[in-house]
Amino acid sequence: MQPPCLGACGGSPAVLGASAHCHRPSTSRATIRCAARGGKASSRGKENVWSVDNERAAEQKGRSQKNHRGRRRPGGRSRAPPPPGSRKENDAGSRVLVSGAMLVEVETVLQTQESVLRPSWDTFASSLSGVWKGVGAVFSPITAEMEPVGLGSKQEYLYDCYTLSRIEKSYDSVHGTEIQRKTNWVQLNPHGEAEKQSASDDEWSHGISSGTVDLPAHEYFDLKKSDVLDEDVMIEEPGIVFFEDGSYSRGPLDIEIGEYDESKYFLSPTYQFEQSLVKGCHKRLRIVHTIEFNEGGANIQTVRVAVYEEKWASPANIHVEDITPVDVRPFSQRKRTKPSELTGPWKVYEVSATPIFSEKVKEIEGGAAFVYLCMETMKKRTLPESSVFFGEEEMLDMQDVTILWLPGGVTAYVDVDKDGILCIGVSWYSEEGINLVMERDYGTDGKLREVRTKTEIKRRLPIQCLLSLIVGEHGWTWTMVMPRGADAGSPALEDATKEECLQRLQNRIEVPYDSQNREHQEALKALWHASFPGTELLGLVSDQWKEMGWQGKDPSTDFRGGGFISLENLLYFAKNYPKSFEELLCKQNGDRALWEYPFAVAGVNITFMLIQMLDLQAAKPRSLIGAVFLNLLIENDRAFDILYCITFKLMDRKWLEMHATYMDFNTVIKSTRRQLERELLLEDIQQIEDMPSYGFLAR
């Protein structure tokens, strides 16, 4: 059920079956030889891209620079080099397109491996569901240059496409929960890559001197009536590894390899490996590698690399007019990531999934069960040994080509290390210094070995750093966001200010609810009158309280988990966002289940969840999320109460999207927490009101 690769294995017939009188570009294939049949790897085998250990890194540092030879294109034809006067290998404007592997050394292990819970398929399906608008392109696995995705009305090549994907969760009696995807697309842009146009003015450019091209916007096209790119059904199949934020790695559990039989030279198993990364819960990157395994798996050819970037537009079950602007630019209009941007020290949080192969597991699971582990390290990445610039005369030896540096902060790689381990990976870098990574490893026996997802945060000098706070071992160490034009010598906030902000909130958290405390009694009465104005309260112990969603007639028994602050949160919500409060209290929106969540008890649980998520009972923040939130708390001492309101509204939206019932409450809360964590780490979150979900609240 693997989806077709854009412009390679499906989609527009203009790409696959061009007219006879049209010139069709030769197919690019990157070839790697490996010991996939159990033999020794080729002497030109390379290191794993992001996961090279210190010993291998030391070996690579000592290795002398190799002499490179001109690379021949498939079919026996080679591209003539550009004139010497137009070579740009030393120009600042040159673009690195492909390179060898980068060296990664582990500096410190911050947290050793420990087990984590297996993600929920239903939660994953809910995170994936919705209408997604995006862009797509295909790239050569040899040169990393953009390749045509189709032909225009004048038989010209088109290099970009807009996509509209509708992803819905459904139920099948055989497979259980399924994820159905239908993608429509339109092709555009006969000019090619804008950065290439501005980087070169020789005969190899597209004849356009400007750096960008004025392309029609996404909204210009009616994609609902356009051609279908693909239709796919995703089930909990043996080869898929998924995470609850909607990211996943999808491919075969076993690659068909074995002894090479020359009489069956025409048999070349071809697989698609689809990997998706999620940024900030509403943006995702999806890359499809199409790879051919020849000679029993010893000869690996990457046929095509397709890249999509999409933004969540609306729920799949709610009709929204297609007028919302899409702030995702076509790949041709973006700059490529520079290798220097990925160098230096990184703090890496990694979650790995390792399959367990056994007959018993196969009988029970229908494939392989996965063990999920997490760890945290400090790593240092250094520049690749060699790279190819656009316009450079000497082409890199194909055995050294590992990383494709693509537009939009994307890097893709297919690599075989000296032990014969095949790694298929993708990373997505953003300017705020966060790099998301997904890697998929196969052993020499062709079996899936491991899948890793990583969140890497770049350590920078204080003036550059976007991490708001890093708590040192012996005290508070601050790095500040410096706006443009700000004085680099501006003083940091005093330690006392930081500790005071946190201490005030902790003092509130430590107060238990006391049914004999007059102040607490008055607060409870105020909550009733804010919830049901005009309705007389018969007493602090009354069956009336059940109408608000307390478990019994005495609400004081439900405050044990949240304390008095949970009552303060509910009261703040009722007074400051009365419209949203009433909508949730009375369950006014959406198609509700017969057995709904109890409003008040849910509110207490949300308070408890936020305290745990932000690690607010610790003397100092011990997590990135806690550190980020403390910055927001300094800006607004009511940040926790506002975050509570955001969370309650977001939880209810998740509840409706998942068609949840009372028994699904914990699953919904977990999904809500993950989205909050992603939003808090978004760029440009300077105050709590900058969170995307804040827009759900209504006064």
UniProtKB/TrEMBL annotation:
InterPro entries reported for this sequence: Calycin (IPR012674), ELMO_dom (IPR006816)
Ranges where the ELMO domain occurs: 519-680
Ranges of Basic residues composition bias in the record: 63-76
Record-linked Pfam families: ELMO_CED12
Signal peptide boundaries: none
Comp. bias intervals (Basic and acidic residues): 53-62
Residue segments, region Disordered: 36-93
Identification of the protein by name: ELMO domain-containing protein
Originating species: Triticum aestivum
Lineage: Eukaryota, Viridiplantae, Streptophyta, Embryophyta, Tracheophyta
